[in-house]
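Progress against Task 2.4 (sequence-to-structure conversion) is shown through the following example record, which the project officer requested during the mid-term review.
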Amino acid sequence: MSYCVHCGVELDSTASFCPLCHTPVLDPGQPVDTVSPPPFPTRRGEVPPVSKWELALLLSAMLASVAVCCGILNFFFVPQRTWSLYISGACLMLWLWFVPPLLLRGMPMLVRLLVDVLAVAVYVLLIAVDLNGMDWYVPLALPIILWGGACAFFLGALLGGGRRSILTSVTLVIGTIGVFLVGLEIFIDRVVLGRWEPGWSLVVLTVCVALIIPLVVVRRVPSLREEVRRRFHM
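Structure tokens generated for the chain above:
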């Protein structure tokens, strides 16, 4: 049995170099065994990456087949209700969420967010068509979807680039949630009551502000910030 002259690891008779430090094996008294199979592979194997176009085609085919099959079942068995619109809308929404970002890696955040908001709006629109609910879709559902997209874009623009600390990110997320809920109550009250009556959203916003204040204090005071980072491993 041979040993590596550099690191001392035990060598197999088929080894022409040390598997640990790659030092060549030069032993005149024991030539390298080129007949027996080596105990480990000498070449590194790599799994080839999956083609983005093939994966996108597979996802598209799966979602399209689900939508078509549900549409056929709906047409032949339950023609009184267009329940397949829910499935088709969900498939379209999932396709818009996953396939375009997969094919377009450099898609700007604004474009990706617009696609996501459009997917949700189309899905809710299909539900409104099935339930004859265009009277609530236009004045209520669509503004809420657009308002949520605007809040998400604002949050993404502030957090973009990954330069924000965890404390700053948590502060921005809490504040955005509070503002979104205030807008949500405004839209609901205007449709249901015809006016805005401040209520539960202000309670939530107050709680969000109460959580934000100590986070801002911790963020501004270096000693507190370092203590939080050390205790919570941030």
